Amino acid sequence: xxxxxxxxxxxxxxxxxxxxxxxxxxxxxxxxxxxxxxxxxxxxxxxxxxxxxxxxxxxxxxxxxxxxxxxxxxxxxxxxxxxxxxxxxxxxxxxxxxxxxxxxxxxxxxxxxxxxxxxxxxxxxxxxxxxxxxxxxxxxxxxxxxxxxxxxxxxxxxxxxxxxxxxxxxxxxxxxxxxxxxxxxxxxxxxxxxxxxxxxxxxxxxxxxxxxxxxxxxxxxxxxxxxxxxxxxxxxxxxxxxxxxxxxxxxxxxxxxxxxxxxxxxxxxxxxxxxxxxxxxxxxxxxxxxxxxxxxxxxxxxxxxxxxxxxxxxxxxxxxxxxxxxxxxxxxxxxxxxxxxxxxxxxxxxxxxxxxxxxxxxxxxxxxxxxxxxxxxxxxxxxxxxxxxxxxxxxxxxxxxxxxxxxxxxxxxxxxxxxxxxxxxxxxxxxxxxxxxxxxxxxxxxxxxxxxxxxxxxxxxxxxxxxxxxxxxxxxxxxxxxxxxxxxxxxxxxxxxxxxxxxxxxxxx
Length: 509
What we know:
Layout: H1 2-11, H2 22-54, H3 58-76, H4 82-104, H5 110-124, H6 127-149, H7 157-163, H8 170-242, H9 248-262, E1 267-273, E2 279-287, E3 299-301, H10 306-313, E4 317-319, E5 339-347, E6 350-359, H11 367-418, E7 421-427, E8 430-435, E9 449-456, E10 459-467, H12 476-508
Antiparallel strand pairs: 1-2, 1-6, 2-3, 4-5, 5-6, 7-8, 9-10
């Protein structure tokens, strides 16, 4: 487990919660580089310390010691700000380059440290810092050469001659160790940066794939919502069209026709349960695609099949092309049908029947569409219930109206038969009665005569005959006055008849 964590730390697999940024990369790369530098630098420090101690080069020994312990400090003390740690590390390499150049001139490790400082400045700080560091290193290198040339600094001939002796292996060891440290530091920093870039690229690809997947999901959801919205709009349009129809047969026919046309279905059939509840009969159908379909009145016994299941459970049921649920059979399935659904016609706690939908397209009756279609089916059932109640009420009212009208006609017939006079006439001589043998309704012989019928509950019981003595035509206002008079007379005569019957009944009792 620890080895895995070390590998994860060195290869840069850790991703913080906010994602890897350039500063995160630099800080992590710096941590790895200084850790490797501290580990490898221990060997270099020991070898250099032994060499410097043998040469009694106390200044260089002090510089190397301070540099190594400062390296340990910035490695372990992570509370120090990153900018200070990175800057001091680069400065340490720069100081090592200068110190090595002063003691070993051009044959030492000075160039290695100066080049390393410039490269790591690019990695840890940025390209501008790297250019500045490279310029400073180059200028420092030329400055040291100029100081040696002008004899301002004493050229270490003796030290250099002792180092380049064929039997002196310490030069190879020191320069090799310095090259090893610099190579390890540079290699680790570049490898870490490349690995972080690769990790970021993989993460970017993963995020891109996830984004594409989310986009596809959103597109599918948007398509589903759009289709459901269109289905709802179509259902509302169908219900709005048939809501004004109060004839149950016409309502069911229009509903089947509109559903078949609006949803582009092969066939739509509406079945209603018989009074016995043992079978359903086809009340309306539409479509068929040129195939022979059952005629209205076609009965299907209940007890088995998909229609029976939908009515019994009061739930919709759809069958797709590759449905493996072995649903109950559909008795009126057409040969071209590839998917079909049965919707119960639910009215409150009762199921009136079912709507059978058949389509030539597979997988058309998905869960969302089935839910929307069931809402439409419930609304059709409600409209059908309203139409049936309206017809029942109208039938009852018509029967009551006919019964009452017959009673009224019989009562007035009896009254007229028992009276000697059949009416009254008013003229210049005053009001006189009309004998029952006289014809009550004379024909209109000219425009000066008007005849208005007197009706009581739809039964004509008499007329008002009016004639102008001047022989002029009747004005429109005068005609309306006569009609209003007739209406008032109708109510008054019927009230008088009822009053007279009440008085007679009271007298008899």
